Amino acid sequence: MKSPRIVLITGATGGIGGALAEAFLQAGDHVVLAGRRQEALEARQAELGSPERTGLVVMDVADPASIHSALQTVHERWGHPEILVNNAGIAISAPLRKGEELAEAHMAVNYHGPRRLLEACLPDLLAQGRGHVVQIASSAGLYGYSYTSAYCASKHALLGYTRAASLELRSKGIALHTLCPHFVDSPMTQASIERIQQTTGQSANEARAALEAMNPDGCLVAPEQIADLAVECCARAKSGDVWELTGEKVEAVASGFALDPPRPSSESTS
Ligand SMILES: NC(=O)c1ccc[n+]([C@@H]2O[C@H](COP(=O)([O-])OP(=O)(O)OC[C@H]3O[C@@H](n4cnc5c(N)ncnc54)[C@H](OP(=O)(O)O)[C@@H]3O)[C@@H](O)[C@H]2O)c1
Prior knowledge:
With 270 residues, the chain is α/β, with parallel strands linked by helices. The protein has one domain (6-257): Rossmann fold, CATH 3.40.50.720. Helix content is 47%, strand content 15%. The protein is built from nine helices and eight strands. An eight-stranded mixed sheet has the order 3-2-1-4-5-6-7-8, sandwiched between helices. α5 links the parallel β5 and β6. The structure holds NADP nicotinamide-adenine-dinucleotide phosphate. NADP nicotinamide-adenine-dinucleotide phosphate binds at residues 10-11, 13-17, 35-37, 40, 59-62, 87-91, 109, 136, 138, 181, 183-184, 186-189.
């Protein structure tokens, strides 16, 4: 019998992380939950209820030393991950010019974290000649939103990096997939609802409705939809796809996001 694939999921204590862990477990994989808080990881592992096919590791993706030691633990206990899901992220809103620290914090967690982790996993992925990396980016990687310049910039950076990496790795058996959900029904959005309440005096229902109305389909994205798409992507060899999740619908974002830059056509060069 084929042994289960090792799937490393960052941000596994969060809303989308929990759904991702559940979905990969359902797919028969061995899931390693990564996050900064041991107790929260243990609670998530207990909720999942499959101790024989789950493991946990403490990792701060903003800290290169923490990534290094966590990956060493993963290798020693479970082997090398065949699937990496870069899901950990932060989103703190602020107007322009409020943000030197915020800009750096967002880049550290949302861009440099996934980049470093991918590159740290790369030697094993290349040695095996197969593997998948799923980047949980955001619609903020496709569009701009007011008061979230640090978040938008970090997710645009992640998308740009992933498109370049997809090209570099596409002949090597490693597939990269970028998922860009609009507002998701998760604790991160709950925190936004609380911030809106504080700044505008709106009720929780009004603040939630305002965020729902910002999504193209008028409803929040379900974490399970993101998780199912991640599993589906890892069942395909195709690399480089960017997916937009608008509330109800899921679309491959092709136009404007072609992997290869335009080149002179053969007619015009001959
Ligand atoms: N919620 C949305 O509307 C939405 C929309 C589009 C994209 N996304 C993206 O989806 C991903 C997951 O978001 P979510 O909605 O599930 O948010 P969440 O419930 O707030 O979870 C965020 C997760 O990231 C982890 N994390 C934060 N900083 C970290 C660090 N320095 N090192 C390691 N882990 C860290 C947190 O873990 P600990 O605090 O336990 O360490 C937590 O598990 C993020 O990348 C987010 O940008 C979210």
